[in-house]
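Sanity check

After download, print the first record. It should look like this:
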Amino acid sequence: MAIHFFDVDHTLLRSSTSRYFLMEALRRRVVTFRQLRQLPLEWLRYKAGRARQDFIEIAVKRLAGLDLRVVEELARVCFEDTIKANLYREGLYRIDEIRRRGEAVYLASSSLTILLEPLERFLAVDGSIASVLEFSGGTSTGRLSGKALFGPNKLEAVRAWLEQRAVAPGDLFFYSDSYTDLPLLAFAGHPVAVNPDRFLRREALRRRWRILRWRETLGGKK
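Expected structure tokens:
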């Protein structure tokens, strides 16, 4: 039976979970602009096709010292106030269609599990594979528990997941917008480029992968 994995940021969601989360954290003065000063440079690297493999580790350092309950509450409010309205309708229709066929749906994201939990509940997906923010004694250490699921690490995590369940790569559908997911897209039996960046679009056209354009969000933005 087919298994469908969806990237989240810029695929199901118009922007990124971390951007919406950090904007909410700034509004509530949980973090400061000074703490985040390096992140715009890393974002420019990403857009230029030169993303650093340790990009996620750099970002989560800014969350050191935050209380687990504060992060969970920020994630909940962020989802209800911002993320939900910025989900693509076409992505939600696709997930509903898959579920009606009785096929499984999972998220595969470099984002943090704690930020994805409200989205998982809303979508009623079967689970997710994502980066895990480390907490000690209820406080963020500013590190990850395990690897950031970015680039080749996401492929490694999904491949291990499939092997544990004896699922063949040929049964895997993977949906993503980003060139950083090229390793997993190339591995999947059914790669789908959704609103691809220019690097992924070029590769998708060359390999004749399916390309989808999702435009309308739940909030009506296009």
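If your output differs, re-run the checksum step. Summary of this record's structure: The CA atoms of residues 106 and 126 lie 6 Å apart.
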